[in-house]
Amino acid sequence: QVQLLESGGGLVRPGGSLKLSCAASGGDFSVIAMGWYRQAPGKQREMLAMITRGGSPTYTNAVKGRFTISIDSAENTVSLQMSSLKPEDTAVYYCNADLNIPQSGGDFRYLEVWGQGTLVTVSS
What's the rounded mean pLDDT across residues 14-22? Predict the structure, then answer.
């Protein structure tokens, strides 16, 4: 099975920067898109940014202009560079991947996978 391994979470002061990374591994697959979500205490999970295999990004307004998503298709890795961090950015951040799993006969099956989450705390 495919697994997503996240890294980069931790404690950062307001106005600071942090970079999250997520690598997909396990078996044969091709990436359709990868992205980042977060869930703050007492709130619903929200999408932050998504990026296609070809590098086309989409951002939610909450992070547009502050966060940058990138993908390394050769390594099946997605990163989220976060800057100008605010206390309201404090949340558990989750990596997500939409994958095509090759099947016999040239067909694919769709698979969505999630990382385990990594905590980002923005506090002075």
Answer: 98
